[in-house]
Amino acid sequence: MIDVLERRTIKSALSIIAVLVMSLGGLSACAQNQITNSQTPIAIGISLSFAGDFKDDGQAMKQGYQLWADNVNNNGGLLGRPVKLIILDDKSDPDQVAKNYSTLIHTNHVDLVFGPFSSLLTKAAAPVVRAAGYAFIEGAGGAPSVFTNKWNNLFAVSLPVEKNLATFAYFILSLPQIIRPKTAAFATSDDPFTFPQVVYARQLLEQGRIKTVYDPQPYDSAKANITIYANQAVQANADVVILGTLLPDITTYIKVFKQRHYNPKALIATAGPDLGQDFINAVGGVKNTEGVFVPNGWYPQAKNFQNAQMVHDYVAQYGGTVDQINADVAEAYSVGQVLQQAVNNKHSIVNRILIIELHSGDVFNTVQGTAKFDDTGQNTTALAYLFQWQHGQLLTVYPNFAASVIPEYSDNS
User: What's the pTM value of the predicted model, to 2 decimals?
Assistant: First the structure.
């Protein structure tokens, strides 16, 4: 028979076992919850333009963001969690972009945010994102006016706009004195993308003792008669011409130059010549593209971090050829790359921690090259590549390490 003491001992042991079973069950439940939580997507909010002036750029940036998210998710996610993009349409409207980021942060409760397209919309969104304490990594807002408020949470992964023409200036100044141009003409629209580039290039060339012979006030391209400016540039007869234009303006300049048989030693435009077949059609055929320069912060063949993979994935998903990939795709993809490296460095998606990491002086690798941020959030290591139309193709010509061919320079002195 079991005496009273033994019964008490057995009862006590059974109680302990029960507690242990319950505890293990609780631990199992906790482990299960952790597994479930690890599969909760990391939500990233973005406002992009699918209507209005920036609709084409908005679509291209969406492709870049999505390619990055797909690549991350196909490789185990971010900190082991899948990434989910929540994208709202701002219709290229500054007021709407501010509302969108407020909605994404305060209604959708996204974990992180990426930037919109253009300096205009980035400036409109920045105060909203800053007030919420979020890191604001962006790839298409590089005008100087974006950085004047010194938002401590804003980080622009692409080349600062005003530095786009710097590589062209360095190329000109690298030429032997005997053939280096002596005079330069400048003309630009008042667009925040165009005129900062022209101003900076002029400063560099003047420091190199190249004389400015034509430099009118920036004009409103929607109202100005570009033919007048083109004819005045011809009259100035400068050795090199630097134009702050988009496609419609550069088309007019080239047509007037051809009509008046003006052939400067070098001609560069901030944008327009980078648009491939659209540029060829606009200027009246391949013969009218010859020798024209244009800068850009990315190209498909660049040997940058994950660039070959991005290019391959783009063609596989969206079709076409590598030369048809819009540089906006690379700008958006670079945003994701910088975030991913910052998150992995700190093993965190806490915005406050990410802001500190992005200001740490660490160098981040992207399809556009490296990124390192100064106290205003500008990328101090980004580089503009110089391209030139030669024999019907837009080719990299400078710096030398990236050049596929030697730049053509018309020494007609």
Answer: 0.83
What average pLDDT does the chain have?
91
Q: Please state, in angstroms and rounded to a whole number, the distance separating the CA atoms of residues 407 and 261.
A: 22
Q: Which of 237, 194, 247, 183 is nearest to 218 (CA)?
A: 194
Q: Could you report the per-residue pLDDT of 242-276, keeping only the tens digit for each?
A: 999 988 999 999 999 999 999 999 999 999 998 88
Asked if residues 379 and 389 have their Cβ atoms less than 8 Å apart, the reply is no
**What does the block give as tokens for 214?**
């034509």
Q: Report d(CA 199, CA 365) in Å as an integer.
A: 29
Cβ contacts of 207 within 8 Å, gap of 6 or more:
none
Q: For position 160, what pLDDT does the model report?
A: 95
Measured between alpha carbons, how far is 135 from 355 in angstroms, rounded to an integer?
Answer: 6
CA distances from 130 to 82, 88, 196 (A): 25, 19, 25
pLDDT digits (tens, 9 = 90+) for 329-357: 999 999 999 999 999 999 999 999 999 99
35 is written with which tokens?
């597994």
